[in-house]
């Protein structure tokens, strides 16, 4: 949902006096713009919390895989096949894209908005425009890599989903016949 709201913001930007040159100013698709902002903010904060929990539970795998990749790069030998390297590369893009997207998103949440010129741009490390570009393109990279990650692991997803939603068969008691002499 955060990606969908991000796509909404990408194609229907807010800006200019009553839209200025923006022909889509004030357009409403399902929700008003404020609703999309609310959805984007809260779903994204939830994703950050879920990502932290995910990292906590997979910390051992993360450390061992990182050591393995670094060791392979330093020693210039491969203990992983092409599929393993592809998976590591896609996971790396997912991780970095999410990190930069989340960091820039938190910046926008905490930094005052300078639209209308009422408050100056805080320019923490970068200008607001640079933060905006970082947020957009890291989000695009994250979403694209996440889709590729999902496709790569489709077999695992379907297997686990079938297991989770499989009907539990209830054992039927066999009919017992008793012979009476």
Could you list some keywords that capture this structure?
65% helix, mainly alpha, 2 domains, 181 residues, single chain
Task: Please characterize this protein's 3D structure.
The chain is mainly α and 181 residues long. It folds into 2 domains: 1-57, no CATH class; 61-155. It has 6 helices and no strands. The chain has helices spanning 2-11, 33-57, 59-75, 82-110, 128-152, 154-165. The mean pLDDT is 79.
Would you summarize the structure shown here?
The chain has helices at residues 2-11, 33-57, 59-75, 82-110, 128-152, 154-165. The chain is mainly α. Helix 1 (2-11) packs across helix 2 and helix 4 (82-110) runs antiparallel to helix 5.
Helix/strand-derived category reads mainly alpha
What is the tally of helical segments? 6
Helix-strand topology string: HHHHHH
- Gap from first CA to last CA: 72 Å
Strand percentage: under 5%
Strands, total number? 0
């Amino acid at each position: 949902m955060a990606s969908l709201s991000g796509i909404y913001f990408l194609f229907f930007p807010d800006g200019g006096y009553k839209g200025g040159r923006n022909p889509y100013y004030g357009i409403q698709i399902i929700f008003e713009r404020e609703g999309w902002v609310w959805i984007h903010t809260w779903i994204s904060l939830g994703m950050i919390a879920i990502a932290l929990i995910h990292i906590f539970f997979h910390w051992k795998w993360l450390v061992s895989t990182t050591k393995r990749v670094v060791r392979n790069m330093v020693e210039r030998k491969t203990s992983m096949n092409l599929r393993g390297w592809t998976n590591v590369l896609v996971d790396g893009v997912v991780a970095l894209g999410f990190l930069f997207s989340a960091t820039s998103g938190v910046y926008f949440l905490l930094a005052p908005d300078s639209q209308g010129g009422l408050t100056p741009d805080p320019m923490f490390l970068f200008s607001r425009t640079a933060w905006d570009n970082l947020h957009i393109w890291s989000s695009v990279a994250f979403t694209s890599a996440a889709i590729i990650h999902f496709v790569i692991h489709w077999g695992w997803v379907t297997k686990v989903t079938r297991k989770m939603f499989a009907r539990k068969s209830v054992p039927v008691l066999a009919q017992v016949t008793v012979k009476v002499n």
